[in-house]
Design goal:
Length: 599
Amino acid sequence: MSKKLDEKYQKMDEKKQKMLKLRHTAEHVLHTAMQKLYPELKKAMGPATDEGFYFDFDYSQKVAEEDFPAIEKEMSRIIKSGSLMKKVEISVDEARKIFAGNQYKLEWLDDIQVRGEKVSTYQMTLPSGKIIDEDLCSGPHLDSVSEIKAFKLLSVAGAYWHGDEKNKMLTRIYGTAFESQEELDKYLEMQEEAKKRDHRKLGKSMDLFSFSDLVGSGLPLYSPRGAFIRRKLTEYVESVQSAQEYFQVWTPQIAKADLFKTSGHYDKYKGDMFRVVSNYSDEEMFLKPMNCPQHTQIYAAQPRSYRDLPLRLTDFAMLYRDEKPGELSGLGRVRSFSQDDCHIFCREDQVDHEIDTALQMTKEIMKTFGFKYKYRLSTRDMEHLEKYLGDPAIWEKTEKWAETIMERNNIEYVQSPGDAAFYAPKMDLVATDALGREWQLSTLQIDYVMPERFNLTYTDQMGQEKHPVMLHRAILGSAERLMMILIEHYGGNFPVWLSPTQVTILPVSEKTIEYSEKILRELKEKGIRVELNSDADSLGKKIRNAEASKMPYMLIIGEKEAESNQVSVRARGQKDLGAMSVADFVSKITKEDDEKLSI
């Protein structure tokens, strides 16, 4: 197990630690079975994950999902053997002899030697003592493979070694394991539902966004419907913010390296930033990966008094990060994105009020989307304090302060040592979607480092200069990532307020086209997003098409409705609401829109 994974393991509760051991052991069973069935393959790596495990290998022939039954059969045989998992520490030279001919293992050994770490392997041994597999690994694992009660191979894909497209493409097999068949069955059922809700699939079928090889990987293009949803999300946040006197700014998408050198991002994240080359200047410049350094310069542009604080700046400008091609995934991991960033410059005595206000705003917005959530308090890695900027005493103060804030607001939170930003601890909101998956969205940070590094000041009541405190706050986080989450959370069935088209009018025949067009005009005049389906298709086909396009409401217009000056209302999901007047329908849908009901 890598050091990073070991740190993650130490933060887990007992249940999660046991699951990681189970899945890590299942991965060893997988690669042992693969080595038996395909002796010529070369093992690369195979960690446990939050939901299962995977195994990367190099093999000249194709391994497909059709081969899974044979692989699973061999895995079951190994599990029934009752083989034990034994950790053995050896020298680098000895390990090189064992794994000679496997360039992937030898590369790991080079890294281990550079880090000065011990080399450990795990041996899988039969009860008789015979070793049937040995692999570089530091664990943790179950004592015996027989403790694996339920497993399943899920999919196969290509994966670049180390996620770098410059390296060789390997084959990756994904699987999962649980303590019981019941848990596995429940997980598989949820996975099937997740496939139906996959935002990449729905994004294409609903014409929300796309990607182009000519534009570049990780750079999403939003169609009108997708752009509408994205804009609606940011407008919603802006409406909540502006009511609390947050002021929107707009900042350039490039900046000189000097800005990021001052902030500290240059040394910490230069490898993840896009360089910008000028035809006329030798200045080193970068595409902006975050907003906070530029916001410090808006603050610094004017002299500030204690009376001017707090100054709350919000920004939806585009940001860019140089993600590895192998790690890009739909809207979940992109190279261009925006955040609902806010930076609050305030006096120390204003911090509590500002954070409490931000927490209440966040609570309101999470309720709108129907998310359950908890907070994660991300603090320093006490064994590697060199990773953080600023006075250790200030860090201790802000970490304890964050705990007090969580407790004062009766917020459930978990500790996450080692996950702080390099300049401040973080209060991160982790939301749970309709499928029970967790996503980190909002963040709050109390930052003393940036104001000092940029020498930001204000004049206090005594005429003395002081540094303000800088609060970093985002509620939605990345609009791109939130769109991914919401598409899957709702399964494409967006509530009325977020739906690009809220109503489709379905005339039964040509005889009711004229009345349908009248309804169309009336609804548009009321600000309702509506379309008219005047195709010559049957009513049944029109309804099926409307359901497939996730339309919130259908107005079915027959001769009876035209004669009575009414509409027959059908809600998404085959819910017949009966006939009602146009005025009553307008009142109903307007209320849902205004109240942002999540139905």
